[in-house]
Amino acid sequence: MMPADAFPAPVVLWSKSEADRAGKPLLILLHGHGANEQDLFSLAELLPADFVVAAVRAPIATGPGFTWFPLTASIDYTLDAVMDASSYVLDWLDSVKANHPSVTLLGFSMGMAMATTMLRQRPADFAAVVGLSGFVVDAGPDTSFRDAQLDGTVPMFWGRDQQDPVITQDKIEFTMGWVRRHVKLTKVLYAGMWHGINQQEIGHVSEFLTHEVLNGRK
Prior knowledge:
Elements: E1 12-14, E2 26-30, E3 52-56, E4 60-62, E5 65-67, H1 79-94, E6 103-108, H2 110-121, E7 128-132, E8 155-160, H3 169-182, E9 184-189, H4 199-214
């Protein structure tokens, strides 16, 4: 595992000024491989305005963007690198979460792997998870994951296109098995979206967040 100071200080884009954040539910956006914190930030205006949105930049520079953990050509990765990246975001989250009544995670592609890894490390800390065109990491027997505490009560939205050319079938199969056992799943398939996000999906995500997080607080 890498020491915490091996990574740069987190770069975060916020949808509201610091004075306007306190007491509002927090939605964290986790971008995909090779992107940056601005990649998903435009979604903030399409999602429920009740949320404070924070888009976090991954810590490792790659090409013109950033990545959460290194990938091989077949999008394989090491579990240690995944855990390092998860700790990076969780450490930052610990510094801000006291200001918010709930925390929800939204990750695209590799960002979905990040969001679900964070949930598996801290099952009681998140109101809901949104995964878009991504996957759940196969952690094997790693004991730092608390899957046994995920009893199907945490709401999770998983949207994808069956023709997605990026996420390999073995990762889809593992993810399918995991979500069926551990979360309260809303799963939607989209045609013609490939490895991306479309307007219909964002509409469904907005409805999911309103129903499962905002209305769930009332």
